[in-house]
Amino acid sequence: MTFDDSGNHDAMYLAGLYTVHVERNRVRYVMNSFVLSVVTYVAELNNEAKQVAEHIGKVHVDVGNTACKVPLASEYIKKVEAKNRVGMKRKTCIC
Question: Is residue 87 part of a domain?
């Protein structure tokens, strides 16, 4: 599945490309995080997730007066690939 401007609008809609920038703050943040999770944990969907991340671009979320930042998915994917961590799950969870 490719996400280009050649009329593949059904796939783009299903991938959330039309809705990610108009949703509420928390929903935008979670949608962006989902793309990052797919790249990190499901190696088979790496190429599709990269295309979606490029198409989505920067996601703006109002995080208030905190130091929190929303990661740019395309840059995060490059970092994960550089560390050779695609498809690797964490062994522990810190809550």
Answer: no
**Number of domains the chain contains:** 1
d(CA 25, CA 50): 22
- Residue 58 identity (one-letter amino acid): K
Cα 45 to Cα 6, 51, 66, 68, distances in angstroms: 21, 10, 33, 28
- Total-model pTM: 0.69
Read out DSSP for 33-62? HHHHHHHHH-GGGHHHHHHHHHHH-PPP--
Which amino acid, residue 67? A
User: Is residue 95 included in any domain, yes or no?
Assistant: no
CB distance 87 to 42 below 8 Å: yes
In a domain, 3, yes or no: no
- How much is the pLDDT for 75? 92
Token digits of residue 21 = 């920038």
Q: Is the pLDDT of residue 88 over 80?
A: no
